[in-house]
Amino acid sequence: MTLTHASFVTLPVADQDRALRFYADVLGMTVIADRDMPQGRWLQVAPEGAQTVFTLSGPGMGGFEPGSARGIMLVTTDVDADCARLAEAGLSVQGPDELPWGRMASFTDPDGNGLMLLTEAHH
Questions:
Q1: Confidence (pLDDT) at 41
Q2: N or C: which terminal CB in the chain sees fewer CB atoms within 10 Å?
Q3: Percent of the chain with pLDDT over 70
Q4: Where does 38-82 show beta strands of DSSP type E?
Q5: Residue 53: partners with Cβ closer than 8 Å, 6 or more residues away
Q6: How many C-beta atoms surround the C-beta of residue 8 within 10 A?
Q7: Any bridge partners for residue 118, and if so which?
Q8: What is the pLDDT of residues 43-66, one digit of tens each?
Q9: Residue pair 87/94 in contact by the 8 Å Cβ criterion
Q10: C-alpha angle with apex 118: 115 to 120, nearest 5 degrees?
């Protein structure tokens, strides 16, 4: 095996425009790809400089169930500030909670995909 990194994570969404507004405007991700393909719109976003991107997969792109992704961990330098921003945007946020590995919170995107925020503990 000569794996180097994960290319993308699929986030199944019902409405790609709504998902794009959330991931770009609320989470501050950058659009990596947005083009029409024979089976649908290929839409990818990522945090600035990230190696792994997120494919916002709409209906017809692989038969994924919108909102079925879970356990997507996003690392941030300030989980408390980010939670406040999410709350201002109208999201329900659980946490942040102090855990042995850092301060962590969880929330869902507009489709119900489960995301987590982590500010890693410094040892």
A1: 93
A2: N
A3: 99
A4: 40-46, 53-57, 72-75
A5: 7, 8, 9, 32, 33, 44, 45, 46
A6: 15
A7: 75, 104
A8: 999 999 999 999 999 987 778 899
A9: no
A10: 155
